[in-house]
Write a structure and sequence with these properties.
Helices cover about 45% and strands about 20% of the residues. It has 12 helices and 10 strands.
């Protein structure tokens, strides 16, 4: 049995679009929980109409509160939706995330659900992950799991104590999955396309702040921002470095030692990987996330 959680805020058209995709799937979830993050437009009306037409759709409205923080908000919305789903369905086996700004393969959930019966200790899975730039003019394959459409084994989700509420919660969740010896599955038989790839300076700025909170090594920041800027002929990636420095001035690092250690050791892992790629060197990969991945 599968439940899917969708966070939404002031996006009625995208919500209708993803609803159409979900309803046309060859395998539909037992429960679809839409978490409304204090929408102020017609989104609430769209949700009400969907609930009226389809019994498997439920919603939660979360009003905006003082101290609203975008860096932490996404994880909190997903966690709230997942708790609601688990409390509503005792026999729930799989819990998925579905953002509104994606396009799914028609057999997406059928393939994902099937994978959990084939791979022992599979904790989380997604299809191939693509990003669309400028609408549909360019689509790039991302060699990683799609956080916006990933599905968790409920037992695995409980093992990591629920979806994290920290910055970059999808990456943090995957790390906890890997550290507890669950596998991370990427299926080549289906796909998800992210339709709203954002590579603006402001986006990189927020990412830099998030990485500081998580404990990202400063040498990685000082090198990666300028390198990406030169590689892409854009100043936007410099926002990553600026955001990290801003985070150092205004915020505190994460208290979770497991997460802090992983991000702080990023420079050491990157250096080892770079050296291992040189001729006559043995290939090594010290990243627990990458080592937990199984290609299906």
């Amino acid at each position: 049995m599968l439940a899917v959680i969708t966070p939404v805020k002031n996006e009625p058209k995208r919500l209708l679009c993803i609803a159409k995709q979900l309803l046309s799937q060859t395998f539909t979830p037992k429960l679809w929980v839409i978490v409304d993050d204090g929408s102020t437009d017609t989104t609430a009306n769209v949700i009400s109409e969907l609930e009226r037409k389809h019994e498997f759709i439920s919603s939660i409205y979360i009003p905006k509160v003082e101290g609203y923080n975008e860096v932490f908000r996404y994880g909190s919305l997903i966690r709230t939706g997942l708790k609601y789903a688990i409390d509503s369905c005792e026999s729930l086996e799989l819990c998925g995330i579905l953002d509104v700004d994606v396009k799914l393969g028609k057999n997406y959930y059928k393939q994902i659900v099937s994978s959990f019966t084939k791979v022992p200790k599979l904790g989380v899975a997604s299809g191939l992950f693509y990003e669309s730039e400028n609408g549909t003019t360019r689509i790039n394959l991302i060699s990683w799991i799609c956080g916006a459409t990933m599905v968790f084994n409920r037992e695995c989700l409980e093992d990591i104590r629920g979806f994290p509420t920290c910055p970059c919660p999808d990456t943090v969740a995957l790390l906890k999955v890997a550290n507890r010896r669950w596998r991370i599955g990427i299926l080549s038989s289906t796909y998800a396309i992210h339709l709203r790839a954002n590579k603006s300076f402001n986006k990189y700025l927020k990412l830099g702040i998030a990485r500081y909170i998580l404990g990202y090594h400063p040498l990685n920041v000082l090198l990666s921002g300028p390198f990406e800027a030169l590689k892409n002929f854009s100043i936007s990636p410099l926002g990553f470095t600026a955001g990290y420095l801003l985070g150092a001035l205004r915020t505190n690092e994460i208290a979770d030692e497991e997460i802090y250690r992983y991000f702080h050791e990023s420079f050491f892992r990157s250096s080892c990987k770079l050296i291992s790629n040189l001729p006559f060197c043995k290939k090594i990969n010290l990243d627990p996330l990458e080592n937990a991945v199984v290609r299906l």
